Amino acid sequence: MRRRRRHGLELATGCTVAIAALFLAGAGIPATASPSPPPGSHREVPPEVLAAMQRDLGLTADEARTRISNEYKAGQAEPGWRKNLGSSYAGTWVTGNTAELTVGTTDQAQSGAITASGAKATVVGHSLEKLNAAKDALDRVAEERPPSATTASLWYVDVKSNSVVVQSAQPTAAQRFIDASGVDRAVVRIVESAERPAPLYDLRGGEAYYINATARCSIGFSVTQGTQAGFVTAGHCGDAGDTTTGFNRVAQGTFQGSVFPRSDYAWVATNANWTPTPLVVGPNSTTITVTGSQEAPVGSSVCRSGSTTGWHCGTIQQHNTSVVYPEGTIRGVTRTNVCAEPGDSGGSFVSGTEAQGVLSGGSGNCTVGGTTYYQPVNPILSAYGLTLTTG
């Protein structure tokens, strides 16, 4: 094991008329969005998921169904808004129990087309492109001169506040970190916080597996690479070449690739004794069938499955977050308010039945609540040429 690995580590404490014609009136979905899924493939949410959302998000069953449906539509719409609003695009997010879609733009002339589509328009000062560029600059500085976790524990693009947020226990030190990047101060907002994220150490998503017969993590999602089956998980769980056994301690597979820090992802190739399935372990030992990996927008509900604490739900707070762990900075993770504990690492995050990512780390626990970060699944699939197993 390299120094980066500390298994069992405890959690630290967007011409109005022209654009309007591109959108489907009343649905908030760009005409360029991907085709609608076959009936039932994405809209029929298992009752156990609805029950968990009612419990953790304070929703009625009807509100949970409406929310998931609207979140899926918002996810379908996002690529079209991004393309057709162009350089003025400032992100999308959903709010409230019914997941009402908001589209940000820096061009007032575009707001009419947005509202005509059924979404809410918000005119802001910075495009998403500008915000992403600012965060990239912070990432470069962190790579050259890694900050301490007290200087900057994490930073992310916050589309709702139209800023890049830097979270720090030492705001003055955080400002020096920001100044070193050359980023426009008007784009960045410092939030004082004592949060100290750390990795959560620890073929159905959410089930336990063991690394080199000792440390425990959780399976993310079943995948294939050609004819080779396996699963994706967190990079901090193991190095390339490390062996795994399953929840039953039966020989399972070998880490084929692993990235940590900078990112936090890995994939394990399994032996012939293990068959990939599109399943994630849900509440009360039920299973959820994964149907795809469409990214859910900020504000969407998201649920997590892990081998320590099981099934818990919350919402997506921000995408494109950089977080500082003791081992180094992790880029491009998504921040949520779903709780987790050690051993849940690598486990599955789903929104409805869409795979979102694998658990990286966080703070707090499932007794008092916490913050967690997941590595989005689509970049993992792309990095290793993997295909997500779906049902």
Automatic annotation (TrEMBL):
<keyword id="KW-0865">Zymogen</keyword>
<keyword id="KW-1015">Disulfide bond</keyword>
<feature type="domain" description="Peptidase S1A alpha-lytic prodomain">
    <location>
        <begin position="126"/>
        <end position="184"/>
    </location>
</feature>
<keyword id="KW-0720">Serine protease</keyword>
<keyword id="KW-0645">Protease</keyword>
<dbReference type="GO" id="GO:0004252">
    <property type="term" value="F:serine-type endopeptidase activity"/>
</dbReference>
<feature type="active site" description="Charge relay system">
    <location>
        <position position="264"/>
    </location>
</feature>
<feature type="domain" description="Peptidase S1">
    <location>
        <begin position="228"/>
        <end position="381"/>
    </location>
</feature>
<dbReference type="GO" id="GO:0006508">
    <property type="term" value="P:proteolysis"/>
</dbReference>
<keyword id="KW-0378">Hydrolase</keyword>
<dbReference type="InterPro" id="IPR043504">
    <property type="entry name" value="Peptidase_S1_PA_chymotrypsin"/>
</dbReference>
<dbReference type="InterPro" id="IPR035070">
    <property type="entry name" value="Streptogrisin_prodomain"/>
</dbReference>
<feature type="disulfide bond">
    <location>
        <begin position="339"/>
        <end position="366"/>
    </location>
</feature>
<dbReference type="InterPro" id="IPR001316">
    <property type="entry name" value="Pept_S1A_streptogrisin"/>
</dbReference>
<dbReference type="InterPro" id="IPR004236">
    <property type="entry name" value="Pept_S1_alpha_lytic"/>
</dbReference>
<feature type="active site" description="Charge relay system">
    <location>
        <position position="345"/>
    </location>
</feature>
<dbReference type="Pfam" id="PF00089">
    <property type="entry name" value="Trypsin"/>
</dbReference>
<feature type="active site" description="Charge relay system">
    <location>
        <position position="236"/>
    </location>
</feature>
<dbReference type="GO" id="GO:0005576">
    <property type="term" value="C:extracellular region"/>
</dbReference>
<dbReference type="InterPro" id="IPR009003">
    <property type="entry name" value="Peptidase_S1_PA"/>
</dbReference>
<feature type="disulfide bond">
    <location>
        <begin position="303"/>
        <end position="313"/>
    </location>
</feature>
<dbReference type="InterPro" id="IPR001254">
    <property type="entry name" value="Trypsin_dom"/>
</dbReference>
<comment type="similarity">
    <text>Belongs to the peptidase S1 family.</text>
</comment>
<keyword id="KW-0732">Signal</keyword>
<feature type="disulfide bond">
    <location>
        <begin position="217"/>
        <end position="237"/>
    </location>
</feature>
<dbReference type="Pfam" id="PF02983">
    <property type="entry name" value="Pro_Al_protease"/>
</dbReference>
<protein>
    <submittedName>
        <fullName>Peptidase, S1E (Streptogrisin A) subfamily</fullName>
    </submittedName>
</protein>
